[in-house]
Amino acid sequence: MDLKKFVELQYMKHDKLVRLQEKRLRKIIRFAYENTELYRKKLKSANLTPNDIRTLEDLRKMPFSSKEDIVKDPFAAVADKNDLFKLHTTSGTSGKGETIVFFTRNDWDHYVMQNARCLLSAGFTKDDIVYNSTPYGMFFAGQVLHDGVEAIGGFVIPASTLKTGAAHINYIKNPFFKPTAFIGLPQYFLRWGLWWQKNGGNPRESTLKKAYVLGEPVPDPVRKKIEDTWDVDCRIGYGLSEIGASAECEEKNGFHWCEDEVIVEVVDPKTGEPVEDGQEGELVYTTLTKTGTLAIRYKSGDKSAILGRDCSCGRTHAKLQLIQTRLDDLMKVKGTLVSPYTIEDIMFSQNIEGFLAVIDKESDFDVIRIYVKASETDDLKDRIITDFKTKTKFSPSFIKFVKELPQIGRKGKRVVDLRKASPLNEIVKEYEKKTSG
Questions:
Q1: What's the fold here for domain 1-327?
Q2: Which of 71, 167, 369, 425 has the fewest CB neighbours in a 10 Å radius?
Q3: How many angstroms separate the CA atoms of 93 and 289, rounded?
Q4: pLDDT class for 93, splitting at 50, 70, 90?
């Protein structure tokens, strides 16, 4: 694929983009009907044929699909079974099981180009030496970003197999490497910088000048702390294995989505009806260029809004509000509906290295236990309690300062609800048992 032409597509006029989308939509709906069990059944259940879905407006007639559909039968959403060459999985931490996503070579080429576009949006160039700490295993981002860096002409240091923060710091400090750009999970990047400071170093003196962080929401206090700790320009990426990828531009206030590749809708999560631009709702995606695992009117569970399509950077594709809430992650604690990211925002506005919040029940009452990786002070404890009261209307039942925190899941969950069944609960229970003394 020609990267230059692919990049130019994100600057096309809106009416031309809509014509391209509708042309691709008609093709993918027929392809899905003829080749997938899942979408053929969904069309028939709604008494639809491919001829009934010809415009963006028509797409709303199509029933929704979801993660549960693909978890139940991963092959039911696969169209071209003869060209499959790899698979990746999601983390499966939502309690719905791992989502297996099959890729054709066509899919991978498109994903690589999407991620190349994201890296350029994030300020990366062909002259960058990119420190890619993102896992290269079943989590697809590591490999596709590696290939994306190569596509823009950059140099890659594939550092994901290193086991400790100290090892990563040694690589970043290596005088023969001199990385200029970082890719990885924000919590690890921040943690390594704080570890370096604690051990007498100064991460601001590294050769890194920019960071592209992804894999989890990044509250404003976390971004600011990363930028202050490392002296880098930090931009955020967002993607789903089933769908593709998007990224911030220099405005750093929303994700530019690849609308030539994916149709983006925002719907009321209760009624399924579309909402106006600027209004929050659930993101729903339809992939237009994939041939392996297809996603058609796929409910993501992510809460966001379309902020508009005009940007000072010149891109004309939809800019999505930064994701801070997954609808299926909302929890009711002591009668209050709260997002894990509200808790993260509270905790990372403090001067801490990390934390673990455990939601549980004791004697039929909700409790929240907080483990904080930081030096204990009465002032810090008081600030945490005050912020909880202000932003969530309840207080932690327990705050304990600790030297170490457990690794929970592939991405390192920081808020765990033990009231819900999850394979990760045992890790938390074992950690709490060890720290109870």
A1: Rossmann fold (3.40.50)
A2: 167
A3: 28
A4: very low
